[in-house]
Amino acid sequence: MGTKESKSEFKRVAILAHSRQAQAGQEAEQVAEFFREHGVEAHHGDLTDEKIISALQAGDFDLVVTLGGDGGVLRAGHLCAEKDIPLLGINMGRFGFLIEVEPEDWRELLPRLFTGDYWFERRMLLNVQLQRGGKVIESSEALNEAMIGRGRVVRPVHLLASLDGEALTTYVADGLIIATATGSTAYALAAGGPILPPQLRNILLLPVAPHLSVDRAIVLSEGASIRAELKSGEEPVLSIDGRHTIDLEQGDIIDVRASDHSVRFLRFQEPGYFYKRLLTIMDNNPATGKENQA
What we know:
This protein is an alpha+beta fold. The protein folds into two domains: 12-118 and 268-292, 3-Layer(aba) Sandwich (Rossmann fold), CATH 3.40.50; 125-260, Probable inorganic polyphosphate/atp-NAD kinase, domain 2 (Tumour Suppressor Smad4, Sandwich), CATH 2.60.200. It has helices spanning 22-37, 50-57, 70-81, 106-109, 187-190, 273-283; strands at residues 12-17, 41-46, 63-68, 87-91, 119-132, 135-142, 145-149, 157-163, 166-179, 203-210, 218-220, 225-232, 237-240, 244-247, 253-267. The chain is elongated.
């Protein structure tokens, strides 16, 4: 088959598949071949491919395509954000809250990359800093949330929270979720929090199983900063996007605010796709096997 000349802004593409999904790897090869047939330089591998990741961190790609679930999108999103590289997900997982392209649809949709029939959606990141003894010992970014919570011992953590430098409240709870609008459909949704439009730059504050303390979610204004000091807790941890977990000590301070970076998703569907997809997933939760029922 001949090679078509690419008229797209995307000249060099990375296709990253979930390393534990053989089907995703096979599909990635086909996606790479599609781009090559259109004159685009395409490199495919998995999310642990050091050569591709190094090139990605150097800003050598114009587009990243992931094949997997939301976890793969989260990991790729962290890699893409600093260099502002667009990210497109093809869903090979169960949910795909962050993804709009299904495996049976990409052959129909990807040609639109060469006609300009797509748009970009920015999602904010949180900058999360862990301070101990007056020094920053950890700095990370979260697309979904930072969660401060108890470990294996079933006892609540005590957190003194402040907003923009002013005392807010003391949380006594299993944990405290500090989430983006994107994260409002992740752990925060499971904990009973509100669903926020994904483009918002607000921060959601939500206690998990609070005990005789504030039990309502708080939606903070854009640009707010939250500081949570750990007063007590048994084996407490800080979890960032559910993938990076750090043991905490009494007196640790977690400072959270909007990051200077954001993740730029490439979208084909109309902006209202978010609610339609969310409600479809919730009505047909793959985890329950409901979609297989008559």
